[in-house]
Amino acid sequence: MYLVLASKSPRRRELLTQAGFQFQINVSNVDETVEDTNPVDKVLAIAKKKGLDIYNKYNDDEAVILSADTIVVINNDILGKPKDKEDARLMIKMLQNNVHHVYTAVFIKSKTDEEYFVEKTEVNVGAMTDEEIEEYINTKEPYDKAGGYGIQGIFSKYISSIIGDYYNVMGLPIYRVRKALEKYDFSKKRFCIVCKNEITTDEEFCPHCGNKIKSKYENQVCPTCHKVNSPNNKYCINCGRELLGKVVIVSNKNECMICHHINKEHAKYCESCGTILDAINDIEKPSKTLKKDYSQPALICGIVSLATGLYLITALLAIIPGVFAIILSSIGLKRGYRGKNILALIFGIIGLLTVIIAIFIFNLIE
């Protein structure tokens, strides 16, 4: 069996990885609107919707789907992710010098079993000045987290105490998740991060898509059709375009090389598929600038050399353009330009040979 995380949260990904799980990531785009107003019912309903959405897409007896959702509740008000700076300011002002609760619902679905639970953690936030609130909301941390803060980040210095699971506030009560997953056998399973297919433990390249497993960022992505090719491929297996070696082509420094989602400036993981972005953040789109081509003047010189060389009386005039034709066409060929340069080289050589023959004939006549 294999595990599928139905979430794009980098924090849930980190916690599962640290716990030793190997898993795929498949993000649900289902509408998270629910009618429940009770916090427990609401968060559980959203987690179920996301999990069932991915389970129905897989339709695989071996798949075990794990989905989760987290909400922050204070004074019976449910706080989602802040929409803008003003929204974040209001949330932090509500949380500071107050107690709130964090609910995370976990939903696990397989062919033979379905399990869900909700973990609750009480969080006490100390008093914050207006300057501290402004300083915090001017960072990028609040805007992708329920309640507008991350307990593991900058905001940690304002947390005075918690009662319950610390990791639940991060987005996944990893202890209860691990215990719930113990019944499943995930041993000896590896999956390609590109095509999501299962591979054996001794394979270096994915047999389905050619992705290099030991170093997943050495695969080649075609700049035309975005097909993932093996590092050894010279031409794209899909469209035939010549590949540029072990280079990932991205149009934006924050673009994921796998799903091409444009992420936030300092994102560590792709917000869509969860791929680590660090290995491609420093890759620039390669540019191939060719130097100037001299095929046109080389061709003209070659023609002049050939034409003048044909006249025995003016044969000596063919030497200069003939030499120029050979030199310029040779430069063009070294720079990767063919076509006219080859023709110019032939004309130049024929012109010089004609001069040599003409000189030889003149000497015979004399």
The number of E-state strands comes to 11
Briefly, what CATH class of the domain at 2-181? Alpha Beta
CATH topology of the domain at 2-181: Maf protein
CATH architecture of the domain at 2-181: Alpha-Beta Complex
Query: In terms of per-residue confidence, which ranges show pLDDT below 50 for 5 or more consecutive residues?
Result: 214-218, 245-252, 278-290
Q: Count the helices. How many?
A: 10
Kindly state the percentage of residues in helix.
Answer: 25-40%
**Helix vs. strand class:** alpha+beta
**What's the overall geometry?**
elongated
Radius of gyration: 33 Å
* Helix and strand element order: EHEHEEHEEHEHHEEEEHHHH
Give the termini separation. Answer: 96 Å
Q: Largest sheet, if any?
A: 7 strands, mixed
Strand content: 15-25%
Please state the average pLDDT score.
77
